[in-house]
Amino acid sequence: MARPDELVFAPLGGVGEIGMNLSIYGLGNRQQRSWLAVDLGVSFGDEEHLPGIDLIMPDISFLEKERKNLMGLVLTHAHEDHFGAIIDLWPRLKCPIYATQFSAALFEAKCAAERNAPKIPVTIVPSGGRIDVGPFNVEFIPVAHSIPEAHALAIHTEAGTVLHTGDWKIDPTPTLGRPTDEKRLRELGEEGVIALIGDSTNAVRDGRSPSEAEVARTIIDLVKAAKGRVAVTTFASNVARIKAVADAAKAADREVVVVGRAMERVVQVARETGYLDGVQNFRSPEVYGHLPQDKVLALCTGSQGESRAALARIANDDHPEITLNRGDSVIFSSRTIPGNEKAVGSIINNLVLQGVEVLTDRDHLVHVSGHPRRDELRDMISWVKPQLLIPVHGEALHLNEHAKLARAAGVPRVLVIRNGDLVKLGPGDPGIIGEIPSGRLYKDGTILEDSKSRAVVERRRMAFSGCAFVAVAMTAQGELVDEPEVDLVGIPEKNRAGEPLDDIVFDAVMSTIEGLPKARRRDADALAESVRRAVRAVINEHWGKKPPCLVHVLTV
Fold first, then answer.
1. Which residue of 1, 8, 94, 434 is 20 to 30 Å from 52, comparing CA positions?
2. One GO molecular-function annotation for this sequence (predicted)?
3. Would you tell me which CATH number, out of the four given (3.30.379.10, 3.40.50.300, 3.30.1330.10, 3.60.15.10), belongs to the domain 7-207+369-450?
4. Is pLDDT at 393 greater than 70 in this prediction?
5. CATH class of the domain whose range is 466-555
6. Burial class (CB in 10 A: 0-12, 13-18, 19+), 493
7. Angle at the Cα of 58 (from 388 to 444), degrees rounded to 5?
8. What single-letter DSSP state applies at residue 334?
9. 212-359, what's its fold?
């Protein structure tokens, strides 16, 4: 008798980290499986550790090998950490993509704004709808989040049903879109759920996330109380917050000026898809300077300190149309993502130095998270009654706290896993049964690099200790044609005693060449290696750091 098909799960991104989400589900046996991918997102480069890297994406080499068995890619929602890698990586997969209307429209607008974006078809699924993707029947269950049309996915298979929550929270009074569908989730729990793959972002926070309706009331109060100009910055994708800001402006008799391309794009898509029906028209930045100070509100990108975004340019007094002065106010309707604290702090300090009043979530309820706190996680578990819970979408601490909470809530099996772990979900006892290649790709300008890329490693070294360049011209007989050229980049000009370092390096190069036997001087590679070692050693002696050294030997 044939063994029943196994249902397996593997995260290729988004576990042990927040961002870069990619999950895959497989149905079949060990020789042959059909695969379903859920989300394909990015995380963002850190200039300190990854200089010049804009985006980080999951390694999809496994899916490339399994391309003929990849039935499709399903999107839970349209945040960058869930769909931001598609334009770069889809050409390697060319699988069908399924998303609801807003996510599809925002993706289309993103493609239109990108140079040379490939034509990527997306099949639109109604909210609450069900589709067959190969042997997987996927149901889109509405959940509240900080972007329209976020969905948990109930993945129905012959081996059982899995609930992949995506990003969610419980908000009984969302200002826009549908609340989390408790009724359908309870029904699923009664039907039987073998595994809950759940968002862990706020698993360390007690209680419940406040509602968007409370934030909307606070923003109205703050905008009404403001005397001068007001600027509000928030995540561009948070359409509910954009609507709240628009309502606050209307209540205070102010015009809304939209500043920043990402914000303009989301506003356009939200209007096209009906999410801003009844909301007044917004104005373009050119009219900002012509409106009275107490009649204008600038809605800006840049809540995370992005150097090229609108708010950073305004704070640096570098924006062509938008200025702020003493007595004006800026509302940060956002929370700083870990890693962005320095950049955001710099903007806030620049604004304060200009006499601008800065209002943040430290003092006012101007932001709420789109992720569930501990009481909400308990609610989800009680509704769905999973046999197994796997925490995802979080760093190690978040995953472990979610796991402890699940065990305390009576979930029979809880598994904490890492990116690349292949987990058997059913039938029978669940557990880790193997490992799948996983890793990171770096978007470096227009090029995708492997995380072990020499360019990235060398750039990190150069960022720390500069670089020495030496050019030497030799005759075929091993004699110097002219004096060597020495160029030190990113290295101090003088040592502690005040002596020029380039003179010290030049002397080291000369003495090294002169000290080599003729045979080694005629060997360009041997000569370059001897000079390289000598230069690094002498700089280390005088500076305490060993920079990379590039030696070019020209034989004439």
1. 94
2. exonuclease activity
3. 3.60.15.10
4. yes
5. alpha beta
6. exposed
7. 160
8. S
9. Rossmann fold (3.40.50)
